[in-house]
Amino acid sequence: MPVAKETEGYGDGSVAGMTHISPAQALPPVAGSAPTASITPPVPGKPSIYLQVGAFSDVANANRVADQLNRAGLGPVSVVETAIGGRSVRRVRVGPLADVDTADRVTDQIAGMGLPRPQVAVD
């Protein structure tokens, strides 16, 4: 799975220089499964809504969760590598999502998969 890299993190969840993986670069959903979330391209000047499902020091764990999310067809999935406190971590995110209602619905679906409830990230 392609990994986008952040060039700088502030340690408080905010980032500078983050490059997102486009939906076309993410792993495709399993054949026959349709995404259930609304995918909307980012609008210049308008923040995008993402759900951060986890942050992993182990790349295999990040990829395993990303693969699970891709198979569920919840929307575009990205793995973003960043450094926090001198450690390299991979944030697994779903999005951008169309709106807050969609984010709430996808949050419930992710929790229903047995994964932790994701944190909302607005970029």
UniProtKB/TrEMBL annotation:
**Stretches the record annotates as Disordered:** 1-44
SUPFAM superfamilies cross-referenced by the UniProt entry? Sporulation related repeat (SSF110997)
Q: Pfam families per the record? A: SPOR
Report domain SPOR positions. Answer: 49-111
Recorded protein name is SPOR domain-containing protein
What species is this protein from? Luteibacter flocculans
